Amino acid sequence: MIIFIETLARSTLVLYIKGQGAVFKALTICAFFVTIYSTMFDKLQQLKELKKMRDEAMQIQKTLDSETIEVEKNGVKIKLTLAQRFISIDANGKDDSDVVEAVNEAVKESQKEAAKKMQGMMGMDSLKGMFGGGN
pLDDT by residue (tens digit) across 28-50? Predict the structure, then answer.
């Protein structure tokens, strides 16, 4: 037995059942079911778009994690990824205020570099102001 559906006038579906060499018009489905079908199809398309966006975001994150910068300020050396994951902090016996200043500077620099990298990857001018990269 084979079942297939034909769309008529965008608001009616006709369900056919083919069996024993003959085709029978089994049921005409009202616009309500067409709406359900269309809604399900739209949701599927939305899920595909969300997956695509998620995959792109994961690729960007992977790229940002793979690149590092090093910043030295007030004798404190900091190494971190463009995703702001700290790799090392060498305080060289400096006091906490010097370390805090160096960390803040390193984060600011990594944000600028990340914004530049994302602009290049995505081609979006709207990212200019994000992460402090617009100045």
Answer: 444 556 666 677 777 778 888 89
For residues 94 and 59, give the distance between their C-alpha atoms in angstroms, rounded to a whole number. Answer: 37
Instruction: Give pTM, 2 decimals.
Output: 0.52
Contact 108, 132 (CB under 8 A): yes
Same domain, 77 and 120: yes
Residues 6+ apart with CB under 8 A from 55: none
Residues 109, 103 contacting (CB under 8 angstroms): no
Residues 39 and 74 in one domain: no
> Domains in the chain: how many in total?
2
Under 8 Å between Cβ of 14 and 28: yes
Q: Which domain holds residue 20?
A: 2-57
- Give the amino acid at 98: D
